[in-house]
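We emphasize that the prediction below concerns an isolated chain of 257 residues; any contacts that depend on oligomerization or on bound cofactors are therefore not represented. The input was used exactly as deposited, without trimming of termini.
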Amino acid sequence: MKRIFGFLAVAAFAGMLFAANVFAASSGNFSATTDNMQCTINSANGSFATGSTSSTGGKVWEIGDNEITVQIANGSGTTLIVTPSLVTGLFTDNTISSKNSTSIQDVGIQIQVNVTPAPGSNVLPAQIKIAPVTDGDSSNGSDTGATCVPNPGGSASCVIYDQRFIQVTSTVLSQLSGCSALSGGTCFELVESTLSAHSFNFYVQAPGGSYTFDVDAQLFIGNNNTVGGGSVVGCAGPGTVTVQQVKNFSFNSTITF
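Result of the prediction step, given as a token string:
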């Protein structure tokens, strides 16, 4: 019994060493950047009290104080996990007056991940695989401000983190004789503001070499928003971007996308 126990103990110890080596090898490299901008809601009127705000479609917020440079190892099975985490804020103000019986307000925030080889690299954009394969909101002609155009020589992927569409219609309120007594002739007003934290994993495969990761948030605004029937505002921050390199082993499933 003692011999058997001793053998088992050695086997268990060897197993732990093997597992430790596997975990150490599979942990990969870690890089990150942070952005300390902070959105907060003013409880008096629902507006964003602080942080990076904008009411203009096409506004771009840089997530992280610096771009991240990562050295991708040669060999198959190497993948990068890029995780942008961001607090997003959306503000919508729908108003109905004697001039507008309907108010439409549409606003959202899209995240774009750019991957660009180091200067002088022979890597072509087609060799950089990034998932999900999507152009985000850039193909949607119903709004403006969100694009998904990669940096020269690189690749990009885009995901909508937050979007809100609100339509308020009333033919009765706009015809009330006393509605002009309200501020600015407003008969009805609906104000909404929210803050949400979002996180999403992008996967990148590329030939060995040095790459730069740039992550942006973009504000887009609906083209059909009612002029004079309210307003929209977007807010971004705080946020972080994490890039982790992982290695797949033969006993795992193949990484494909």
